[in-house]
Amino acid sequence: MDALIIAAGFGSRLAELSPSKPLTPVAGVPLIEIGVRQAMQAGVTRVVVVTGHQAELLEGFLADLSMRAGVEIVPVRLTNWSTPNGHSVMAGATRCDGNYLLMMADHMFDADILERLIHEHRPDCAVTLAVDRRIDNPLVDPEDATWVKMDDDGMITAIGKTIAPYDAVDCGAFLATPDLAKAIHEAIAEGKPGSLSDGMQRLADAGRAGTMDIEDAWWMDVDDPRAHALAEELAPWHLARTFADIGVPAGE
C-alpha cells in the first residue's frame, strides 16, 4: 500500500524553530522522517509526499531519506501551497495506486494506530478516519483541533474545527480510497474552499465516512512550540521502535 503525506504548508507557528515544518527535528529526527518510517513500519511500501513551502530543501532531504530507509519516496510539488489542504490530497492522490494511508507531516502516532488503520477497510466506506474519543486529551490543542461527530455505528455525521457538539477529535490519519480526492474536487465545484474536511463532510453526508477509535493509543500534532517541547519529551518513549530504527536511544 502507498502512503500519502501532506507536507506543503508554511507551518507559521513552528517557523521560529525551523525554516521547514516537515524538517523540524524531534529528538534530532525531522518530523517527515518520523512519518515515513512509521508508515513503513505499518506496512507501506511506497510514500508520496506533497511538497510546497521550501520544496527544494524538503525534496533534497527526501531523496537522501529514500536511500537511507530503503523505500521509494515520490515528491509531488504543489505550486500554490497556500491553498487549503484538500488541494494537496488531490495532487498526491494522482500518484497513489488504489487505496492509501493518508497522513499529516506534523503528526506522530503509536505504531499500532497506523497498522490497525490499514486493515480497517469497509466496502461501504470511501474513507476511514482515526479518531480519539478522549476529547479532554491534554495533548490536544482545542483551538486548532478538527472535531468529529458520529452516529451510533461510528459513521461521521459532521467534521470541522467549529462544529458542536462533537464526540471525538480527528487524529490526522486516514485510510482513503480514490473517492476522497473526488469528493474534495466536487466540494470545490460547489463553491467550497477545498479543505480536506470539505471532502470528508461530503462523504459523511453520503454515509460513506467511517471511523476507527484509537482507544488508549498515543498520538500528537506537533503544530507549535508548546507541542514541540512536549514531543521532545514524550516521543522517544512512545515511538521507541521508530527511533530505534534510526539509532536514537529510547527515553530514559
The SSE string, one letter per element, is EEEHEHEHEEHEEEEHHEEHH
Q: Helical segment tally?
A: 8
Count of extended strands: 13
Average per-residue pLDDT, rounded, comes to: 94
User: What separation lies between the terminal Cα atoms?
Assistant: 34 Å
Sum up the structure in keywords.
single chain; 252 residues; alpha/beta; two-stranded antiparallel sheet; 8 helices; 25% strand
Describe this structure in words.
This protein has 252 residues and is of the alpha/beta class. Helices cover 34% and strands 25% of the residues. Strands 1, 4, 5, 6, 8, 9, 10, 11 and 12 form a nine-stranded mixed beta sheet that branches. A hairpin with a 5-residue loop joins β9 (147-150) and β10. α3 packs across α5 (178-189), α3 (85-93) crosses α6 and α5 packs across α6.
Chain-wise SSE layout:
Blueprint: E1 2-7, E2 25-26, E3 29-30, H1 31-41, E4 46-51, H2 55-69, E5 72-77, H3 85-93, E6 100-104, E7 107-109, H4 111-118, E8 127-132, E9 147-150, E10 156-160, E11 168-176, H5 178-189, H6 196-205, E12 209-213, E13 219-221, H7 225-238, H8 240-246
Parallel strand pairs: 1-4, 1-6, 4-5, 8-12
Antiparallel strand pairs: 2-3, 6-11, 7-13, 8-11, 9-10, 9-11
Helix pairs in contact: 3-5, 3-6, 5-6
